[in-house]
Amino acid sequence: MSGQIYIPLPTANSIRLLRLAPGSNDDPITCELEIFSLNEAPTYEALSYVWGNPQPAASILNRGLAQTVTPNLEKALRRLRLPDLERVVWADAICINQEDIHERECQVLLMQAIYNQASKVLVWLGDDEFGQAEKALRVIDLASGWCMTETNANSLSEIDFDLVSEPTLIQRAGYGSLHATSFLSGFLGTPMWEFDIMRVEVEKWASLRWLLERPWFSRTWIIQEVAFADSIIMIGQHELEWDQLAIATAWLDRKAYPPNRTGQDTQNMRRIRAIYACSPRRNMGVRLELAEALELLRGFDTSEIRDRVYAAVCLSNQEKLNHSLLKPSYSRPIPEIFTNATEYVIRNPGSRHAQLDILSSVTGERNVLDGFPSWVPRWDEKPRTSELWVTNIGSRWNACASKTSENVSVSDRKGLVVEGIRLGTIQFVDDRLSGLSSTEENLVQQLFEERVANLRSYGPFENLAEAFAQTITAGSSRNFDAGGGKGESFHWQDLVSYFAWPRSKEERDRMSESHAERMRIMQETSNFEMSIKTNHSFFVLNNGLMGMGHCSIKEGDEVWILFGGRLPYVLRSFRDHYQFRRQCYLAGCMDGSPVTAWESGLYPEDLDKKEIEIC
């Protein structure tokens, strides 16, 4: 039947638009496809929706012929249909011949332009079967009003202007953006009890949660669909501006939602915030780098894994899809597509990233087993908040001293050929911190006494406590400001307080310190506890350097500084190649001092530069 409905598109710039005939109530959906050149297309609206469960299949009349569509698309078209006027819309499942793989590949190249050129993007969240939308929208109205009050704005557009002018906005939309601090945090200092949040009825909160749990919010393609054009959200018969939803949910996430919530509603709140934050319309046209877009989309869902790459490229810069490494193909193996995308990013890291930053996205253990090179990120796996780089502090490190791999390449067997220096072999691994709990806090002190306390000194650190504290927290602490600058070092004081704080109530009751002194020790203990990388292993190299790495590292693994990488990396040696394990933290080496010393001839000859292959 598709062959009778679809006439082949004549040019690479051609699209189909759907002319939706007027109708009412239960009239059959009647429509007709018409082909246009994209730059000559009439005014149209673009539909953003979830395909949803294909069963039970629905039917529409397309050019007088029955065409099967998903129930959710049929409901969306019925909602869009006007009673007495034709409506011109673009909907991917109908306007693209889904049975023609070549056409799908060509239309991906136009996807961003299609949504960007639309007069409006219509977001269909689904039916309001239980009448909850009105209550949910009431909470959104209240929250957006409270946000305007707190920011002294007379309209939502004024809040937009404030956000656009914030210099760190685009930085917060990169690595780890789903876990980053709220983009409204810069001017949200009023306690929530000064608003009427507590007076909002329980059923209204439940309705908001229901709204935020709609499947649309987790789709991979939605970011570019709403990031480039004005968008209206439709839920049942109700409508809401996308900007209002984004600002209201960000404000609520900051003020009213418990920070430890892990439900779908909270996760989608942060997805909304990330989408809003990375929109070029809110960043003076600045777009995400491809590496940032790939990582951002990792937290979204898609039934077609290849679209994780193609959607990210569209979000970054659609013109990149014409590059041989990124050209859409739904027939190529997924490992090849991911490998090509990683190679492209390494060759073109962008202005905000170092050459090998993309390696910090490698978080899985299944790569080699599934046919992926070990150095290629698995963007089909959910992001891991446990990784060192997710804290967004990796950008302040410069282990390679800004030195790059001049001849980086990918071999015929898909190995990454790079240059670097080997810092040493892991001689000792202690994974006790990986399962640290509040009842086992003495393990930290045991580790210090066993491995550090007897050392005479350690590198550039003034005392051993500071070196150890920096190591087991992987350099993250309260003494780093948002811009990455380092103020007075509190690490070792926190460690001392951590060791001094009694573990039992009976011991605390016997403390002789004043109340103020006890509060200080308790606060510093808490600071240190929150910074300990409890999901990582402590390790020591054969030359005495100590660090923290993923719990999968083993004795015999090697630690390298690869030119172009801001972090040291753990590699596993094989006969003629290496496997990539993870990035790591190595105390005293994160500022590039080993590379600087090597260039000055201060390191032994066996630490000379080498070219290696990582497979």
From TrEMBL:
Residues 44-225 form the Heterokaryon incompatibility domain. It comes from the Eukaryota. InterPro entries: HET, HetReg/Transcr_Mod. PANTHER family: ANKYRIN REPEAT DOMAIN-CONTAINING PROTEIN 39 HOMOLOG-RELATED (PTHR24148), HETEROKARYON INCOMPATIBILITY DOMAIN-CONTAINING PROTEIN (PTHR24148:SF64). This is HET-domain-containing protein.
